[in-house]
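**Fold tokens**
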Amino acid sequence: LLRDLAVARILGPAHFGMWGALLVYRQYSNYTDFGFTNGLGRVLPKLLQEGKKLEAQEAMGTGWMVAMAGTLVFALAVAARFLPSFRSYSTVTLWGAATVVALMFLDKHYMYSTVVFRSAHRVGESGLWMGSLGALELALGIALTPRFGLYGLYVSVALAALTAVACMYARQPLRGVFGTNVFGKNAASFRTLLIPSLTLMGLGLGSIAIHNVDRVVILWTRGAGAELGQYQVAATLSLAVSQLPCILLTVLAPKLFRF
């Protein structure tokens, strides 16, 4: 929240609107894992509570592979969106698209590690990494954006995400077991995750579609300019209220799903 407000002031409405347009792709990519990361958050606490460590690790491996495969398909679709008219886009827009594609994969691993931390009763450490990511984005954004503009913003968000993901992976309390065929060795964990994952995916996609429909309309009718940037600032401020229930659920959900 603070990073976006600071960056919006530095960049101005037009450039912040361009960044807001690219963020629409990033937000929709949150559900290219077919809901398996959120589904893992429902299944993993119960498996660990029952002492089924191997099943928990297989579920982790399955969830990670499905998430990365879905993100790869979506990333290729985004690339296909830009490639036909490649020369018509500015260099800064193309680098922004490349940054957002990289962030899609980093976001997936961040969400995955967060679920593992919370399921293993390390909610406090999960919150610490979340705060560290926000602090890194803010510090790097303020340091790099005034000097390098949008390029500085791209580097700051990518570097912050990469640092947080690498540290979380090093501290992750449990490692997934990866099979070569989701429908073979890990078929049981796939079936365990399938129904809750698809249910949560439907709910999440509906929520994100409603949340972004106004931005999509502005982008479609007015383009990625100052008006979208101004609206993006207002939408960022609204997150302070709309995300509070989500923050509370990240603490309560793992405890509920153990039973």
In short: The chain has a mean pLDDT of 79. The longest helix spans residues 187-222.
